[in-house]
Amino acid sequence: MTLSQLVTPITDADVDWVVTLMGLETLDEPRRAFLKSMDTIDVAACPGSGKTTLVVAKLAILARHWKSRMQGICVLSHTNAAREEIEKRLGDTEVGQRLLRFPHYIDTIHGFTGRFLASPWLRSKGIALQAIDDELTHKARRRGLTNSEHFGAKAAFEAKHKNLHSLRVRSADFDDPLGGEDIGFAPHTPTYKSVVKSLSGAAKAGYFCFDEVFVLGHALLDQEPTVGGALRLRFPCVLIDEMQDTQPDQADVLHRVFPHDDPDVRVIRVGDPNQEIFEKTAPLQDPFPDPGRQLEIASSFRFGQAIASIANPFAYVPITTGLIGLRAPQAPDNTPNTIIVFPDDDATGVLDEFGKLVLKHLSTESRKAGVFAVGAVHRLDNFKANQYPKALEHYWPSYRSDTTKTSFKPRTFAEGAHIARRYAMKEPTASSAVELLALCLANLGELAFPYSLVQLKGRRQAAVQEKLTTKPESFAQYRECLRQILFVPSEVTQHDWINEISPKLLMLAAALHDAEGNAIHSEGHRYLAWEPAPAATEVGESGGSLVNTYRFQDGGDGVDIRMASIHSEKGKTHAATLILETFRGTHFIKKLMPWLEGKKTAAKRPQVTAKRDMMLMYVGMTRPSHMLCLAVRQSSLGEGRSGEKRRAALEAAGWSILDLTT
Predict the structure, then answer these.
(1) Ranges for the UvrD-like helicase ATP-binding domain (predicted)?
(2) How far apart are CA 133 and CA 207, in angstroms?
(3) Per-residue burial over 180-201, b = 16 or more CB atoms within 10 Å of its CB, e = otherwise
């Protein structure tokens, strides 16, 4: 059955029902139109529009009237945000429980491809899937080579400034896993043969990297042309969230299974084309949004009109009505959106000035969403003097670029111990802290005993506990280490770390890898080196945000400023945001000055070369609910008459200017 046969037409009464059920505010016409639509549609929703909540409301209405027990709604995205929102908002309702079970399906695009396409194809070839995991797959590939083969290939790749870990299976013919890809080495060379051997062996053993799942998905669709039709029959309605972030390999599979123009399936794509900040290797076959099927939601609950007006010129895909800020100003609300001007050769005072502005204008209550300083560039690579400030490190030398990754791993075990202790102090349970320490222990074992064949799969705490329960003395020692690190009144000292904790951790690592009595590799000792706890007092959403939190103190009051890349903050809400000048070919904010000034030339469709910069600025500017600031070099504002003219234009556009050079 098609969607129109499975669900009766959605009425205003259905919309009113879901508004009451979810406790939503009164919805405007574009939002109601989305909820009532029964057609294939592309929804372009601005930042802070309540997009995920609307998606859940739409699903609740559909599930309420769903007639089939065998056909369902398929909800796909890049994260599990939709499932988490359903559990949060509808978990205790009948309709919420209905959405979370068969016949409906909610998962990531990778998860869907793995379950319905990749796994069946592997089974048809007699291959048992072991893992779709980059780390485990790299280990499996390493095990397939002798030491001389591995180190020879590694050295050859590094000589060409390449990385073995960047290699991917490109063909479902595992005897020719590269599929003819040019990797810089001829097929007759030992390096090429070693690469093919490692990729082929791991694939045949059932190990694949995260993005290789799409190669396998296409293999099934090529082998069994009827699979796409069967999946469309199973899922006559598919909703794809965060569509602007969909990469070509993901989109190609989705397009083959759920064509946007198939009359028997309803494809609902939701996203924001102005937040497409993750680079694509190629354009999508079916670009988002389709102008003929587009619905705009241009109003944001996150911020007021002052920030909306500043951010609107940076919408690379023009918003018909312009960006609208719905957050009502709170009296007295004179929070200034400020450009902080600093000397070209010294950016180190910027964070303190931002901290002063936050303390002056934002109450403790309004700062709960967090105070952030973000940049377009956060890695300090190949720095040249004329690029200053190039990256976040130039504003605070202690900033570490590696910690903004979602896969953040502490640089040393001691750093992980300090972060885990903060988790244990701030969270209602110690589960996150224990999991982090188990991750560090597993990492220590791999570094200390690199030739071990023991593999720890799944969540590290569960794997460590399962392994050590067969060794009661080691398990007791593990629990004692947890107590010494997490559950004592004072911080771990250097003396305790070196003399008591580190020796126990090495013995535990040996027990995990059945390597008792074996020599310990020097990398293991380096990983156990002592370092003091970071000075920051707040724990954010990851261990990385703890390490990268700058503390500004002004007498008895203070504020934690969390530093990160713009990319890592996409989708999040801040109380206040400072966008820092960085260098990408040219200075990022300086390049965008015409849009900041509101020049008429900037209102024209910009060149494609400006697209990514504009979108990054748009994402950064639409994070804060209360205050937006920029850090700009003195020379970017100019001097003399032209400088005065530019400052006047910026003030007319809604900016206050704080000059640190006078």
Answers:
(1) 24-310
(2) 7
(3) eeebebeeeeebbebbbbbbbb
Which tens digits make up the pLDDT trace of 376-404?
Answer: 988 888 888 899 999 999 999 888 776 64
Whether the ω angle into residue 489 lies within 30 degrees of 0, i.e. cis, is: no
Fold of 3-35+51-113+221-270: Rossmann fold (3.40.50)
- Tell me whether residue 45 is annotated as binding: yes
Q: What confidence score (pLDDT) does residue 323 get?
A: 94
Q: Decide whether 3-35+51-113+221-270 matches 330-399+550-659 in CATH topology.
A: yes
565 annotated to bind ligand: no
| C-alpha to C-alpha distance for 569 and 619, rounded to whole angstroms | 8
Asked: is 330-399+550-659 a CATH 3.40.50 domain? The reply is yes
Is 44 a residue whose pLDDT tops 70? yes
List the one residue out of 289, 269, 256, 266 whose CA is nearest residue 73: 266
Cα 583 to Cα 91: distance, rounded to the nearest angstrom? 46
Give residue limits of the domains in the chain: 3-35+51-113+221-270, 134-208, 330-399+550-659, 413-527
Residue 225 marked ligand-binding: no
Q: List residues bridging with 399 in a β-sheet.
A: none
Tell me: is residue 638 an annotated ligand-binding position.
no
The packing angle between helices 81-90 and 51-65, to 10°, is 70
51 is in an annotated binding site: yes
Q: Is 46 annotated as a binding residue?
A: yes
The whole-angstrom separation of Cα 60 and Cα 38 is 14
Average of per-residue pLDDT across 3-24: 89
